[in-house]
Amino acid sequence: MRPDERAVAADLQAAPFQYGVAKGRWRLQSVLGVIVLIEVVARDGVWYLFRFDCQNYPQAAPTGGVWELERNTVASAGAWPTGGARITSVFNPSWKGGTALYIPCDRQSIDGHGGWVTQYASMLWDPARGLVCYLELVHELLQSRDYHCAA
Amino acid sequence: MDNVNVFIQGAGVRDVRFGNLPANCHYKDIRALIDEAAPELSDLTHLFYENKDEPISHDERLECDGDAVYLHVSRCRRIAVTVNFNGQQFDRKFSPAATIGRLKKWAAKSAGISKEDAAEYALQISGTDERPDSETHVGSLVECTTCSIEFDLVPTDRING
């Protein structure tokens, strides 16, 4: 097993991730090497599936987008979370082909956004905290007032 | 007897720890788990259930509602919390096991912010960029030797390119 695969597997078993599972915030769908599928719950009870590519984890941040399990591909635009400006800026299916959330802790998105290091310091990737720091931000957004509940 | 997952937060320990205990086990069994899962918390006196104000007494058995229990280990009996907002300052003492979510509700209410608008704010540790998650126990953000912490109530960010 590669070091990044080992690190991801360990973090998925560790207390911080399991804490979020116990609190009903997220749940593991599957892990295959460095590809992790995790569902995160929104405030209307809808579960959104995210595919995280954790290559070179934890030194490098994961990159992740909304995923459709049945077709094993990026979810169609209509299946992405919608809402106010805080939601649409992050959950943008047009950004990087839907493979990355527009958020400072995402490996693809931080690239080319040097200003984010100071502007959004609380949202940066923290290798010491691991995948949980990404999931907490996603969960907080999906629980926010800006998220529009499904009809 | 079914086992439960026991999640432990504690003074100055930023990462949650966990283990497994039989439901309805004795206080000494909880302490043994803490010694194993979080040895740096072994000497700390007070043990709380999450968001409870009174410590668990030594003759109690583990109370579970579901398959997980959330505990906090602390030397402090109370944490003096100060929140700054818009030139005002609000103070209150909380159990070390109080969650950031609970603190934020109090801070928003003190500042006259509606429940709906409160969702647009976050507690940030004063002098830092750190905005602890809503499930973090306030006691885990302070070292054993201090029993106080200060926050700023700040608007949450919209990501702009």
Give a structural overview.
The complex is a heterodimer of chains A (151) and B (161). Chain A is α+β, with helices and mostly antiparallel strands and 151 residues long. Helix content of chain A is 30%, strand content 19%. In chain A, a hairpin with a 4-residue loop joins strand 4 and strand 5. Chain B is α/β, with parallel strands linked by helices and 161 residues long. In chain B, 16% of the residues lie in helices and 35% in strands. Chain B has helices at 27-37, 100-110, 115-118; strands at residues 3-10, 13-22, 46-49, 68-74, 79-85, 88-94, 121-125, 148-155. A 4-stranded mixed sheet of chain B has the order 2-1-4-3, with helices on one face. In chain B, strand 5 (79-85) and strand 6 form a beta hairpin. Chain B is elongated and about 50 Å long. Chain B starts with a strand and ends in a 6-residue tail after the last strand. The mean pLDDT of chain B is 92. The interface between A and B is medium-sized, with 25 and 25 residues.
